[in-house]
């Protein structure tokens, strides 16, 4: 083939016009530990830190790269193109990592050129040089990127002589056409990302069940993904030839899932990517449909059950040891009322009896602590590892017959695999409802429309298309493979904001050739895949950044013009790719399977061409007509005309020469490669957030508006000043100087110094909420404790609002937040017209106040616009809001079918147990207190019932008296004009053991009644009646005196003396803040809840506060010498003279803090537009939805195969 230069010049380096820079690539875990670091790596100057990290961490060869090389001259290969190897004769020979991006670009382009030369793809040596230079330029300028296995494997042998023993791969020799077993692991790379493999209903023979796990492992090791239709396996009710029944489909799927889960932690840095497909008429289809729903229920049970067990078992242990009885009595529930109470509570929550007994025996042996592991709902947690179905995407194969049976409410037969008989008959709609519910509940299974897929099949004479790769974009015959590459659309936008069709067609032509060369040079994991990949030579050219391209043009994603632009770009790409395939066929011949399928392939090409010309009917042998391209919707009509010309050329050249490839294009999710190209959006997806957090070279992040937003605003005719205002509204000014409400002046009034404000300002630049900058880590613990008067307990509470504590109102905080951090949305921004809001709609609502998001239908219609012009299919997520119902899931599936798409994967927000909700269930400020949830007319009846339950719950046994010398507190208050003194007595562990109630100057009757009532309550407490029972019984009781409460900072009103007393006890001993009327932000200590006594002054030394809160008499006058204040950083004595050991923190506290911190990280991630899951590789909370999978914006890890 002749190769023209479009981006480079002859006899000049392709890098001559590209500036390079040296950066340090560093990826850390959230805890600060180092995952990866490489210093002085060289990348193009225009590359972001994230792109630099991706190529360094993922794509650089980390070892075995020699610093001294020599050529291995081959007779038929030009010397400049000959393979290289380590120069063993060099004195200073050493081996290390690749350190410059040019090394990577050179080895990739060099290997493709080398194999292209050997395969006779170039007309001359000058064409080979042009090819080599053009490809290197496009890689360096992020115009395109191949799939990850190319980066991993291609060129390592050609560039560095790296090799190893064969891994059981095969290839077809290009010269002889013979199937050959590889004798090297690297000479021929494995560049294919996508595989489809078959499985036979056989346990151990080649092609059978166990053999598939081996073939899958061989793929996973090299970073590829695979899919299989498992419908050949017999159902669980079918018999075996030797008698008995089969284990069934599901048992083997669980084995394969476990195998894939084990491999994801080995091999390359990628996790295993796998697709499981089952036909809708399989006998076990119902169990398959609800597989992940059932497994997620198991996870929920594990998480909830482990926490319930841990809580109750620790309480039982505590009850055994917080007992003053003699001998074995403490371990006998008949003698220890506290133990009996905890046992009954545990049994009531279904804690197993043998575990309860085990803990009691454990306590008898003298142990005082237990370790009972609790689980969480992280998708890579032990809870998920325990269950099955977590290492694959699941899809069902649905025929048009099934869809028609749903529409007509007909029966549907499930067919035995062994003899074709009917296993079971069910209503099609019932089965359809199961599909919709499962998709709604856990986002699986997806749907593949079997009839539509095979209507567009170019090679039906060779067999049906039965399955797909993990992301559903590659659909072809079993035992075939596809290598992917994606064009970055933003790099092909000219100065008029139009697609540069000349450059685009040139790139499509070159990269169709590259992918074709990759088929010829590749090795494959099995004989069958090597043979069929040679015979059909399927390719996967696609594009990325469509969402960014449309936004930068000022065109809404959900618009007729947006969809037509998408269709035109896709039509131009695939038409040009097929034309190139025909051009290659004119020189090297069509693919071996073409003659058998030529009639059907030309029919499919004609259907593509007809759609490009906008025809609504007249299609050949299609059950569903595609959505045609409407060129009139596009302002840039040249794009549509070029697309039509491309299909004219593809059909004309195909008629003459046939095609070199059975398929040429797909639209992949472009996860990791999208990051290495610095794409704002991936594949055909819209953007997920308006404001992104870009990584800095020195660590940390900075906040930036999408690079397409200013372009879009300019295209929409906004002035520079208006654009600046809109961007600042979204991103914020990054400072509190001159901010409304919370600013430097108001903070200085609260005690902030210039030094503290300077520290604060450096953190505000990257903050997405000012509340997160006001913490002990930013402004210092000592300043918080000593200058602001914040308690250590408040600092440890992740829900603590320091600005609210300082006296700022919610409105003041919100105004300052908008000024400093921005809204992270363009909704309600100044100057922006309502009719332009749709241009900036994303997949999810943006920021704190964003409400707009793209509709479910908009996603599906965009897929439908592209699908008629794609050889394969499209990997895309159909985002649904959390409040979508099951019926809407079914409707989305049906709409996809009606519009002619080949597959659909729904994702409802929150449908994964591991997935935090994008929207809160309720706002914390809106949570009603417990009393407001009760019906007022039932309060008296409820009080009587609970009091009766309290009386009935008294357990008889030994009385657990309080110590003779005990601690407690006295609370004075005035209730309805009557003074009330509440005295408490506590056990050594701080729990309540007695109360006394005294009333000032009251009549003998009421005063004596309250005193004796308190004695009765005290005796009940000491016999094990829970304080909770008394609280439930006596709060809300109504009698005089009642009314306003004075002298208590938490309780401001009471319906009776008893209501007041038990509210106070509940707040102080049970943490029942729902029964209080005011928060505790106006006091600086947590012990007791006295009126106003003992308020911490900002200049006091901490030990004085402790003395103030403790009893000198209780310590018999030794407090001045013995008291110490201990916090997590410093320990003070009364004389400030020595440091003591820090107290041990209970395991329960550590666990709670860890959980709170994790939930805080999840919350922050969701506010930044991420999914809220943590990356399984680097631990960062920067995962975004990417096609049907997830990708990490920090390290580039992806759960897919691109």
What does the model show?
Helices cover 39% and strands 13% of the residues. The longest helix has 31 residues, at 291-321. The protein contains 40 helices and 32 strands. Mean pLDDT is 85; it is low at 265-270, 917-956, 1081-1101 and 1124-1155. Strands 7, 10, 11, 12, 13, 16, 17, 18 and 22 form a nine-stranded mixed sheet that branches. By secondary structure, the chain is α+β, with helices and mostly antiparallel strands. The chain starts with 19 loop residues before the first strand and ends in a 10-residue tail after the last strand.
Euclidean distance between termini CA atoms: 28 Å
If helices are DSSP runs of H or I spanning 4 or more residues, what is the number of helices?
40
Question: Could you tell me the number of beta strands?
Answer: 32
Structural category: alpha+beta
How confident is the prediction overall: mean pLDDT? 85
**Percent helix:** 25-40%
The biggest beta sheet is recorded as:
9 strands, mixed
Q: Beta-sheet strand percentage?
A: 5-15%
Low-confidence stretches: 265-270, 917-956, 1081-1101, 1124-1155
Radius of gyration: 35 Å
Instruction: Identify the overall geometry.
Output: globular
A few lines on this structure:
Helix content is 39%, strand content 13%. By secondary structure, it is α+β, with helices and mostly antiparallel strands. The longest helix has 31 residues, at 291-321.
